[in-house]
Amino acid sequence: MMRWGDCFCWIFAYFFSSSYLILLFQFQQLRKELEKRFPGMLKIDGEGTPTSTGWFEVTVDGKLVHSKKNGDGFVDKEAKLQKIVLAIEVALRK
Length: 94
Description:
Helix content is about 40%, strand content about 30%. The protein is globular. By secondary structure, the chain is of the alpha+beta class. The strands form 2 sheets. It has a 4-stranded mixed sheet with strand order 4-3-5-6. A two-stranded antiparallel sheet has the order 1-2. The protein has one domain: Glutaredoxin (3-Layer(aba) Sandwich), CATH 3.40.30. A hairpin with a 2-residue loop joins strand 1 and strand 2. It has helices at about 20-35, 70, 80-94; strands at about 1-5, 5-10, 10-15, 45-50, 55-60, 65.
């Protein structure tokens, strides 16, 4: 859960793959970057399931904002990160 004033939102990332360690690294990098941009305001949870493949999903406040499975790929470009950051900022304004 994230708090900024009286605003809250959840960030949850699913990472499923036979390349579990690669996706875990991607998740950790995303977590680190978001915590740097929103210090002390984040609650980020992740779940990995090595038996499923190809997923890296990011949900902010219950809304899917990034999906590797649906064509977004990894969060490896600033534009992809900005999409997630914007979703966090919008959720905080509610």
